[in-house]
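ARCHIVE CARD
CATEGORY: sequence design from structure
SOURCE FIELD: tokenized fold
FIELD CONTENT:
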């Protein structure tokens, strides 16, 4: 799996391959050709082995087509010596074909509330246990809570519990030029095409790519504010990028996690215009 180290808020710096036999670091991330190895002093160290050994709840987030299923399988193979509790996005009520169901966001938050308590009990009782989740809190917030602000109080209570657990979030990212081809999903057939049209109409967008660009930015902005360690990476169809952000005093969560960013405001405004909220 190929990755590019990226400066925090900065530009692409180099290229390399993940080598599971040794730690991955920002200065050698890991292409063995010396002329391609670039030192990035300000980049936080990204060591997948270190993340997997220190985290007990790992969440894979991203927009449609970003490679969540592929990366989840990769992580599961790396965690084969552990007791892996593996959940798909459908298991967590976050699949695309569940979104049109009435009150699905309310059900998601209720499930999250019970699920996080369950996960905390398991990792307390079993030192080898690790949870691997395909979508969770970021998807619930950016696609659900922003539509139904009445859910935000309960969501914040869940988030505070998640913050206290050894959690790491992997946010898979696409370049804008990749989004159209990566979100085609021909295997999903006509229901997927109908779903995309449903979402465009519901959220007030004319273009699925622009909608996903906005959603992707909203996920990253939300992750920054929520103060849970996360990494941003891209899977191959283009060179991969990886960025790791540890907990920071600059990203402390407040009592109200509603973002004041232009991205979230734009997303919320479109939904209000469509009488969603």
């Amino acid at each position: 799996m190929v990755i590019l180290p990226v400066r925090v808020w900065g530009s692409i710096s180099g290229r390399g391959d993940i080598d599971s036999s040794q730690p991955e670091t920002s200065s050698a991330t890991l292409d063995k050709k010396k002329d391609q190895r670039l030192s990035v002093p300000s980049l936080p160290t990204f060591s997948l082995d270190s993340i997997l050994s220190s985290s007990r709840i790992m969440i894979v987030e991203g927009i449609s087509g970003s490679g969540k299923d592929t990366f989840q399988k990769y992580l599961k193979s790396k965690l084969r010596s552990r007791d892996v509790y593996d959940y798909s996005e459908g298991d967590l009520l976050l699949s695309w074909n569940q979104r049109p169901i009435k009150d699905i966001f309310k059900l998601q938050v209720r499930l999250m509330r019970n699920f996080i308590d369950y996960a905390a009990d398991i990792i307390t009782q079993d030192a080898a246990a690790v949870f691997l989740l395909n979508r969770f809190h970021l998807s619930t917030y950016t696609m659900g809570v922003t539509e139904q602000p009445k859910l935000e109080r309960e969501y914040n209570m869940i988030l505070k519990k998640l913050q206290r657990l050894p959690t790491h979030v992997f946010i898979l990212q696409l370049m804008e030029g990749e989004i159209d081809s990566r979100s085609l999903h021909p295997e999903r057939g006509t229901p997927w095409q109908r779903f995309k049209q449903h979402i465009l109409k519901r959220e007030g967008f004319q273009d699925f790519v622009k909608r996903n660009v906005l959603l992707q930015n909203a996920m990253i902005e939300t992750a920054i504010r929520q103060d849970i360690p996360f990494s941003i990476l891209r899977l191959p169809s283009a060179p991969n990028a990886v960025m790791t952000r540890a907990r920071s005093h600059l990203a402390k969560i407040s009592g109200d996690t509603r973002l004041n960013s232009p991205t979230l405001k734009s997303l919320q405004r479109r939904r209000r215009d469509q009488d969603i909220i």
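CARD ANNOTATION: Confidence is low (pLDDT under 50) at residues 2-43, 248-259. Residues 46-273 form a domain with the Rossmann fold fold (CATH 3.40.50.300).
SHELF: design records, drawer C
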